[in-house]
Amino acid sequence: MDLKQRKQWNENHKKLTHIILKPNEHQTSIELFLDQHRLLHSTRMSNSPIPTLEDELFINLCEGTLRKYPVTTPDTKNSIVWHIWHITRIEDMTMNVLVNNDEQVLHSGQWNKKLNVNYPHSGNEMTEAEVTDLSENIDIQALMAYRNDVGRKTREVVSRLLPNAFNQKVEAERMKVLEEQKAVKKEASWLLEYWGGKTIAGLILMPATRHIFLHLNKSIRIKQRIQKKGD
Question: Domain DinB-like: where (predicted)?
Answer without folding.
Answer: 61-173
